[in-house]
Amino acid sequence: MENRANRLPLSCLFPVFYIGLYCIDSYFAGWVSHCEIGYELTKVNETVKGNSRLVYDSMLKGLRQAVEHEIKIGIGTDAAMSYVTHYDMWRELDHYMRQTKLNAGQVIERVTKSNAEILGIDHLTGSIDIGKQADLIVLEHNPLDNIKALSNVAMVMVRGNFIQTPSVTRIQEVDELLDSVW
């Protein structure tokens, strides 16, 4: 396989983390909140906001170039950032879909199968196959029709252990704020 990364401009490689033929983008949600939520809530001054916009724009350019050049993309979170929650990965996937030519099936594959391949654990998880761990979520609606369906997980199976009623503590004020800028 040709190393497609050798023909990419540097902007695709920074601030995106690059490993071999893999491109692992940082979480966009944190940067969107820095850029879009007002000072009265974030206390982020104009200098930091401008820098956040530069980082976000560079990340987005890198993501688009990675998609264009068919570089494997992993999708993760950075819930240590302000206004980023542990439970709303659907927002990141939605952003990928709106900012690239990827569809719901493609972003779901990147957050499952591709991530497992990048981490070297695809023999254990990341897809449904004989001999792999049973790591599954059950949803009430089809995320291929609406990616936000991922925000309402009905049941979870982790390594074959069934969690009938998973509980997620949501932060309503943060959700409403993110809904207004997302």
Return the structural class. Answer: alpha+beta
Uncertain spans, ≥5 residues at pLDDT below 50? 1-18
Q: For the largest sheet, list the strands in their spatial order.
A: 1-2-3
Percentage of β-strand residues: 5-15%
Tell me the distance between the termini.
38 Å
How large is the radius of gyration? 17 Å
**Global shape:** globular
Largest sheet: 3 strands, mixed
Annotation field: number of helices: 6
Q: Helicity, in percent?
A: 40-55%
Number of strands: 6
Order of helices and strands: EEHHHEHHEEEH
Q: Report the average pLDDT across residues.
A: 81
Protein model, in words:
The protein is of the alpha+beta class and 182 residues long. 40% of the residues lie in helices and 13% in strands. It contains six helices and six strands. The strands form two sheets. The protein has a three-stranded mixed beta sheet with strand order 1-2-3. A hairpin with a 2-residue loop joins strand 5 and strand 6. The longest helix is centred in the N-terminal third of the chain and has 23 residues. It is globular and about 55 Å long. The N and C termini lie far apart (38 Å). The N terminus is likely disordered.
